[in-house]
Amino acid sequence: MTTTFRTRGTRWAALGGLLAAALTLGGCAPAIPTPAPDAASVSPALSVDRNTQVLEAMNAALAEAGESLDPSTLEGRVTGPALALRTSQLQVAQIRQNSDLVTVLPTQYKQIILPLTDTWPRTTFAITEPTDELQPPRLIALTQDAPRAPFKLWGWVQLRPGVTMPAFADPKLGSELLAPDDASLAVTPQDVVAQYADLLTTGDQSAFVDTFEPAEEDPFRVLLKSTAERQLQELEPDNDLVRGTYTFTSTPNPDAVIQTVRTADGGAMVLASLNGSEHMEAVEGAVLAPSTKTAQALLEGQELTNKLTAGFMDMVALFVPPAGSDQRVKLLGYSHVQTSASVG
Fold it and tell me: In whole angstroms, what separates CA 230 from the centre of its chain?
């Protein structure tokens, strides 16, 4: 399946043509002087060439860390959820002496989305080509905290297969960055993140289920449901009388900002970090063994019991329609990476 991308590169040129035509046709009326717009106010905060340099510096830091498996080499070019997640992946790679579980971020890009802003912090986005293994493209976000600070990788998701991405402004024009409480959307960015976390936790029992696309169309919710069903089946003892318990909860990451950029239709793409927690408890006397290579590495040295808890750092990218739209919120992509494990 293919991933489709769209841009709006001519909207200002077309608007200028319409205004010029209107002034020509209205030549008999007195001309009303209008102030010329400040060029800085309609220019993106970062040039395409400068953005290329930023991406190259980030990729160099990721490559160095991948070769050395040393998380300290990331700090100059990686921050926020991405730093915590990549640090955990490199630590697992150190334990396993194998980096095959470290997320691949391709260095070639299908599309870039540059911010239209004169304030900080500011965020840029890029969509990669598929990986060498033909996995779907990644959506990445980089932030700059202050005028002279470097742009750093803030987070990433894997786009869902076959997704049609919303259109964004041409990078030469720039796209508007939105505040967490922006009310021009069907749901504010901060509310949609909290509501999606509730949906991941409570499923069809969530009060917000009708705000989002159907569960069977959301690959992250499908994954969590199938995981829960599989784990419950494994927790069922032979006598079929007493079952173990399985729970998964999701909450917005309180330490991470929400990254939001305007789409061409007046909606927005929202990128956010979530904290996921999975807890399993088997019958007394049973022993729960980790089922993945990551969990095995994170549990190294711990004595197994009938309880097992896993922590996940999840990233989600959501399309939120504009206020008044009859569209539902849609998942564009996600990442679901285990970052901790314990036997309690």
Answer: 26
Q: Please give the Cα distance from 292 to 294 (Å, whole number).
A: 5
Q: Which domain holds residue 198?
A: 43-342
Number of domains forming the structure of the chain: 1
- Going along 193-329, which residue ranges are E strands? 245-252, 259-262, 268-281, 307-320
**22 assigned to some structural domain:** no
CA-CA distance, 47 to 173, in Å (whole number)? Answer: 10
The rounded mean pLDDT for the chain is: 88
Determine the Cα–Cα distance for residues 11 and 264; give it in Å rounded to an integer.
Answer: 10
Taking the C-alpha atoms of residue 279 and residue 249, their distance in angstroms, rounded to an integer, is: 9
Q: What is the pTM of this model?
A: 0.86
What is the C-alpha separation between 308 and 198, in angstroms, rounded? 22
**pLDDT beyond 60 at 23:** no
- The rounded distance, in Å, linking the Cα atoms of 202 and 52 is 42
- Say how many residues make up the chain: 344
CA-to-CA dists, residue 172 to 42, 44, 117, 151, 203, angstroms: 10, 6, 13, 19, 41
Tokens describing residue 19: 């205004």
CA gap 96, 247 in Å, rounded: 28
Is 83 a member of any domain? yes
What's CA 153's distance to the chain center, in Å? 12
